[in-house]
Design a protein that fits this description.
The protein has about 170 residues and is an alpha+beta fold. Helix content is about 60%, strand content about 15%. The chain folds into two domains: about 1-125, Alpha-Beta Plaits, CATH 3.30.70; about 125-170. It is built from six helices and five strands, in the order H-E-H-E-H-E-H-E-E-H-H. It comes from Devosia marina.
């Protein structure tokens, strides 16, 4: 690989990783092409990407952006998974690691916070950004629904009393 190509790869990695909510670094020794393709598809569906880059180039790319120093994780054949949603990449990587023993999570980063393998797995158990938004919308909607039903209740009660009074008057 020539210097110009290396600069391009580093610039591309910097651009990609700068907008990532979280980064997961893992070993992929002995992983089949089909399994690796499956991982790529899963991460892509979640709005992220999986990249294989030379360790030295990945370290150079990470130096130039505002991410925790995880350069110690780049030893041996590594793969980088990242997504804008801070929970998406760790969640998919942890689930994939459970199914594939040859995929070993080494650690990662979430912004300026470095994560070890257990930290990545803990992050994977958290709800995603979309799930949190749905819960928040439900919490905001619920009081409004209760207020509306409380406001309607007195009017409905008056209507029932008037209807009962009218039926009583007609019967008499």
């Amino acid at each position: 690989m020539e210097r110009a190509e290396k600069r391009e790869v580093v610039a591309s990695l910097q651009e990609s990783l700068a907008g990532a909510g979280s980064i997961v670094v893992a070993h992929n020794t002995g992983l089949t092409v089909a399994a690796f393709t499956d991982l790529r598809v899963q991460v892509k569906k979640a709005g992220g990407k999986v990249k294989v880059a030379k360790n030295r180039l990945a370290k150079l790319a990470l130096k130039e952006i505002d991410v925790a120093d995880i350069s110690g994780l780049f030893t041996g054949p590594t793969v980088i998974a990242y997504a804008e949603d801070p929970v998406a990449a760790p969640k998919i990587a942890a689930a994939f690691a459970e199914k594939n023993q040859k995929f070993v999570i080494l650690g990662g980063a979430m912004g300026t916070t470095a994560l070890d393998a257990d930290g990545v797995k803990a992050l994977a158990t958290m709800p995603s950004l979309d799930e949190l938004r749905a819960k928040l919308a439900g919490l905001v909607k619920q009081p409004a629904t209760n207020i509306a039903s409380i406001l309607v209740q007195p009017g409905a009660g008056i209507a029932r009393v008037l209807k009962a009074h009218a039926e009583k008057s007609e019967a008499a």
